[in-house]
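tokens incoming
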């Protein structure tokens, strides 16, 4: 995947967990339509997967990739990671499910809880992305920035880390380009939503829709795009 010729710093703002629940979908759609989210990663077997896919006809500017899920919300694996052929079949099944739901191929590949970074799984994800000829997170022209997040090593909620002021600092000091994927997790969780990352999602929506962001991005020289803006590798 190459970088387009223009000199802008390109910023992909990608929302993980699209399809997790209808409420999460609502937050992602809001952060796209009224905010700076340009891309989302779809989970294909969750309660909100069909809702997310149906809504894509009204979201032509939203790039959508696949968020391959091989773990529970608790991060526990749902299969044996030592079983390479089994994992490969599961990745292929989820890609097929993505195409069936959305009637399109993914714009990119990544994974729930970043399991594609596991040395046992990385080659399988690289193979899947190569077969689709799309970027794989951490293996493309787009550098991944995952520090816009409201719960860190102490396990406590830190809303200040996902406030506008910290996002502005992050964009000014930590995102250097030329192409960056800023990860985020916006959403409006249902009352019965169980996750270590819940109330923070609505705060992310608020920050990502802050009216000051367009001027800030222009000032910092960013151009918002999604993974479809990356040129395909030469044949």
């Amino acid at each position: 995947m190459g970088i387009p010729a223009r000199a802008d710093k390109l910023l992909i703002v990608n929302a993980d967990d699209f399809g997790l629940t209808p409420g999460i979908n609502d937050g992602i759609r809001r952060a796209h339509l009224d905010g700076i989210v340009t891309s989302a990663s779809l989970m294909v077997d969750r309660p909100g997967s069909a809702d997310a896919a149906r809504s894509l006809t009204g979201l032509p500017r939203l790039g959508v990739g696949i968020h391959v899920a091989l773990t529970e919300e608790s991060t526990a694996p749902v299969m044996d990671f030592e079983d390479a052929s089994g994992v490969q079949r599961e990745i292929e099944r989820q890609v097929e499910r993505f195409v069936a739901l959305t009637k399109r191929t993914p714009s990119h590949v990544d994974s729930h809880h970043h399991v594609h970074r596991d040395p046992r799984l990385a080659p399988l994800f690289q193979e899947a992305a190569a077969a689709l000829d799309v970027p794989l997170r951490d293996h493309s022209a787009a550098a991944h920035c995952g520090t816009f997040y409201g719960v860190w090593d102490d396990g406590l909620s830190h809303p200040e880390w996902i406030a506008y002021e910290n996002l502005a600092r992050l964009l000014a000091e930590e995102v250097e380009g030329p192409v960056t994927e800023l990860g985020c997790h916006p959403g409006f969780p249902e009352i019965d939503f169980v996750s270590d990352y819940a109330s923070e999602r609505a705060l992310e929506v608020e920050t990502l829709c802050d009216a000051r962001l367009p001027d800030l991005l222009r000032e910092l020289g960013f151009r918002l795009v999604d993974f479809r803006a990356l040129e395909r590798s030469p044949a």
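note: The two ends are 11 Å apart (CA to CA).
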